[in-house]
């Protein structure tokens, strides 16, 4: 999955695959997580958020199934 760099204090890049509704997040510590069953609207909202870390923490983490892949 291709990721795009983002401006964030703790997130390095974000990718999204609409077919599988999978969000991929690379953090500044080099860890990478997949978050499953996120709508395209959620991805778009994350990318438009002023604070991507806060958005992820408040609206995605602990609400969607995830898997650490790196």
Q: How does the SSE layout of this entry go?
A:
Blueprint: E1 3-5, E2 11-17, E3 22-27, E4 32-36, H1 40-48, H2 52-59, E5 66-68
Antiparallel strand pairs: 1-2, 2-3, 3-4, 4-5
Q: What does this protein structure show overall?
A:
- The protein is built from 2 helices and 5 strands.
- The chain has a 5-stranded antiparallel beta sheet with strand order 1-2-3-4-5, covered by helices on one side.
- It has helices spanning 40-48, 52-59, and strands at 3-5, 11-17, 22-27, 32-36, 66-68.
- 14% of the residues are buried.
- The chain is of the alpha+beta class and 70 residues long.
- It has one domain (3-68).
**Radius of gyration, whole Å:** 11 Å
Uncertain regions spanning at least 5 consecutive residues: none
Specify the overall morphology. globular
Mean pLDDT: 96
- Give, in spatial order, the strands making up the sheet with the most strands: 1-2-3-4-5
Number of strands: 5
> How many domains is the backbone divided into?
1
SS-derived structural category: alpha+beta
Sketch the major β-sheet.
5 strands, antiparallel
- Name the helicity range: 10-25%
Distance between the ends: 14 Å
- Share of residues in strands: 25-35%
**Count of DSSP H/I helices:** 2
Q: Give the topology string: H per helix, E per strand.
A: EEEEHHE
């Amino acid at each position: 999955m291709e990721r795009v760099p983002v401006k964030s204090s703790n997130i390095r890049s974000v990718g999204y695959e609409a077919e599988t509704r999978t969000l991929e997040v690379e953090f500044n510590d080099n860890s990478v997580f997949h978050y499953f069953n996120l709508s395209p609207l959620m991805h778009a909202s994350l990318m438009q958020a002023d604070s991507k870390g806060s958005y992820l923490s408040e609206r995605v983490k602990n609400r969607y199934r995830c898997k650490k892949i790196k």
